[in-house]
Write a structure and sequence with these properties.
The chain contains 12 helices and 16 strands. By secondary structure, the chain is an alpha+beta fold. The strands form 5 sheets. A 5-stranded mixed β-sheet has the order 7-6-8-1-11. It has a 4-stranded antiparallel β-sheet with strand order 2-5-4-3, with no helix packed on it. A 3-stranded antiparallel β-sheet has the order 13-12-14. Helix 9 packs across helix 10.
């Protein structure tokens, strides 16, 4: 899940100290300044004293007047598919980009020019914090809610509640985890949900239903081929589909793929949580390393044997492509695979892709299946 958070406004500093000079005079000057459709009475008092000169500047500005010229705001967003809703040069009336590229439309309708900047998801936190504590050039940032404690809790964002009420934004249909955990802090709303993500299992429904393939699988493993419910089954199915041409296109295919480039911690968490793993106890004492963490990491390493070459450099888009271009039989990833397959733009079409919950583990006699 990614949040859209309003950036922080600037402020005026009111006192400047000049280099020392002898006492000469005290001057008070009042003048009229016209700026941004607002006439402001500005009083400048310069008092010169020894051994230093202190200049105090007082400004009174009337706020709330509508802008008289173009409005430009600066957006920062993690690079890749999360950036496409703002800027997407490939957008078409129909197809896989399904109504993205909103920044030019916002300019056309509202007259607001959005300047976009893509940032590396792996370093976005340090980039954002450096900007928030420094130049403050970003007006909107898109980020993972993992950073809420620093950004929202640190007081770096503008509460949106009055705007939500003013413009009658309906948040009642949002699941509580998105509305409160992801978008709120201290009883105030600071963000709007941008990309309500969760990991799911995607698999080639047409291939899983192929009678010859099903027979081959049952002959080898002694059970029916079906979407895996446990990570042991997931490993087995991935092994089966790796290293041969199961779709008849003349190319060797693979079992599965996951995002190791940007979100290794997320796919680790799927396994860790499904094993009942906890990071801390009730007093916030660390509980890792523990058996759940070790098992999750071991299984994460094992599954890499059944992934395409170069998988360590695959981000989200490359993972999606592995499914929609017929390279892998499965993937654990975000929900983008379904709409992309359904667009008709890729070799694998929507009716060829099935969806299921992520696998899990049997813990205490129960199957636990948790998704990041």
């Amino acid at each position: 899940m990614a949040g859209v958070v309003a950036g922080v406004g600037g402020y005026y500093a009111g006192s400047l100290t000049a280099a020392p000079k002898p006492i000469e005079r005290t001057v008070t000057e009042t003048r009229t300044v016209t700026a941004a459709a607002t006439t402001v009475r500005e009083t400048v008092t310069a008092t010169v004293t020894a051994p230093a000169t202190t200049t105090t500047v007082t400004k009174t500005v009337t706020a709330g007047a509508p802008p008289t010229g173009p409005v430009t705001i600066t957006l920062a967003c993690d690079a890749g598919h999360n950036y496409l809703p703002w800027f997407d040069p490939k957008e078409a009336p129909e197809g896989g980009h399904y109504g993205q590229n909103q920044a030019p439309k916002i300019k056309e309708v509202l007259g607001i020019d959005i300047v976009g900047e893509e940032v590396d998801p792996g370093t976005e936190f340090s980039i954002y914090m450096a900007d928030l504590t420094g130049p403050g050039k970003y007006n909107i940032i898109v980020y993972f809610p993992t950073y809420n404690g620093d950004i929202l809790g640190g007081g770096w964002a503008v509460p949106l509640d009055e705007y939500i009420e003013k413009y009658r934004i309906n948040l009642d249909d949002l699941p509580p985890v998105y509305r409160y955990l992801y978008c709120s802090w201290g009883g105030k709303t600071y963000a709007l949900p941008y990309d309500g993500d969760f990991h799911a299992l995607y698999y080639r429904k047409d291939i899983f239903a192929n009678p010859d393939i099903r027979k081959k699988f049952k002959d080898k493993y002694g059970r029916d081929l079906e979407p895996p419910k446990t990570y042991d089954e997931y490993l087995q199915v991935a092994e089966f589909f790796t290293g041969w041409d199961w779709d008849g296109d003349g190319e060797v295919e693979y079992g599965t793929v996951e995002d190791f480039k940007d979100l290794t911690w997320g796919i680790f968490f799927d396994r860790f949580a499904s094993l009942g793993g906890l990071w801390f106890d009730e007093e916030m004492n660390p509980l890792v390393p523990n058996d759940a963490a070790v098992k999750a990491l071991e299984d994460l390493v094992k599954i890499t044997d059944y992934m395409p070459p170069g998988f360590l450099e695959f981000g989200a888009l490359e993972v999606f492509d592995c499914m929609t271009k017929g390279i892998t039989a499965m993937t654990l990833t975000w929900p983008d695979v379904g709409p992309r397959a359904g667009s008709g733009e890729f070799p694998v079409k929507g009716d060829q892709v099935g969806t299921a919950l992520v696998p899990g583990y049997i813990v205490g006699g129960n199957l636990l299946r948790y998704s990041y």
